[in-house]
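Forum: Protein Structure Q&A
Topic: Joint prediction for protein chains with partners

I've read a bunch of threads here and the consensus seems to be that you should model interacting components together rather than docking separate models afterwards. I'd like to see that in practice. Below is the full input, 505 residues plus whatever partners are listed. Could one of the regulars post the assembled result?
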Amino acid sequence: MKTPALSIENLTIRYPGYKHTAIKSVSFTVKKNSIAALIGPNGSGKTTIIKAILGLVDYEGAIKVFGEPVNKMYKKIGYVPQKFNFDQTFPISVYDFMSLVLYAKPKNQTIRQINKVLKYVEASDIINQRLSDLSGGQLQRVLLARALVHDPELLLLDEPEAGVDVGGEQTFYDLLEKLVEDKKITAIVASHELDIVYAYANQVVCINKRMFCEGVPNEVLTQEMFEQLYGRGLKFYGHTHIRHHKK
Amino acid sequence: MQRAIIGGILTAGLTSWIGILVVLRRSSFFGDAIAHASLTGVALGLLFNVNPILAATIYAIFISFMLPYLQKHSELPIDSLLGFLLPFSMAIGVILLAFIPGYQPELISFLFGSVLAIGWTDIYIIASLVVVATITMLVLKRKLIFASFDSEYAKISGIKVEKIDILYHILLATIIVAGIKLVGIVLVNALLVIPASTVRLFANSLKQMFILTPILAIFATVVGLVLSYLLNIPPGPAIAVMSGTMFLLGVFVKKIVA
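Posted by a regular:
Agreed with the consensus. Here's the joint model:
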């Protein structure tokens, strides 16, 4: 059996000061060179799982990346956060923003690497613009470029469609799909957009504090599973409203 | 006056430089609280015949470590803790000063600065701080900026953010105390926060921030000192008013240009 890109075993997470567990006994694996989607309602623990993989929260259980304990593999992981933890209005250019990640590299290598990755995400023209002057779609590309600037093999994206319009969202996921094909990386996306999951993900993991389902989107996303995950009475439309179904 | 201008230029450049990181961290009130709290250090120094600036530096460093500790154990937001610390520590300082017999002219000079009374020893101390802070900033500039701008991503990218934060807090506390000699405890934020806030209105990159902020702070300090000499007004407040006026002008100019 091939080594998976990510394997999570019995992941349990408790936040200090909270009685309830945020995540209880979650286990799943993600194949190399694929797109996996984490789905679930707000507060279900999707972001918490991503933060555990990144070492930002304490957890019980085991997380391995390409067969190695995750704490040895952070350099191979790229991350596109859901929320900005920085002051977006601060006068910082796209180049400055990305160069921070390459803090240990010499300047000429930093410039080369940033130019290469901005060209790939088709954002070379905004290299000197201030972050605060970018549109939602441009900012999302820059965040993706920052996540790619150190050539990761595993990419974690936390609701990357937030703040992007429908057209921008599809362009972004087309780019992500191209990236997985070209660079042979693995992407794990936390998302609310079930049509996007249908169109682009090879695998879906349903989370609501614990694991509800795992498998190919067409097979596991049923009306019954939808009600279990999001609550009774909600109608699941499957992939009937998908903008361009690719599977 | 010559010593005042040399001391003023050094202090303004240094304080405004670290002020960029303060603004990046959105923690302007943090610097203010440390400055106010350092009055206790000044009082302890005067009470026990230790150099008040040295005592204030040690106390300010102590406070800058206490705050993250209190935040972790109280689970309260930092602004609540700063709201506690500022009056609490300043009041302790005033009470301690009451135990020193006789009139305390130094209290006013620490509250509002005494740059005209600056001696060569003070200038040597501030110049040494400038050298240490400049070397630290040059060596660790990218890490300090990254940890200040986006601490979560810095951590993911392999930076030991906790260690960088300790270094930042030591630098900040030390530089704030150096700034007290120039503009005083009450007005030190005029050099710490206002120049960086003014420059951020117009700058397009970090490079511009790091070049223009000290220039603006030094300009406000020199003009403030000259005005204080010509008009016979207190120098600390003159510098603070000059710095604040430039900020207001910046806001108006930006509004007109936009």
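The two ends of chain B are 40 Å apart (CA to CA).
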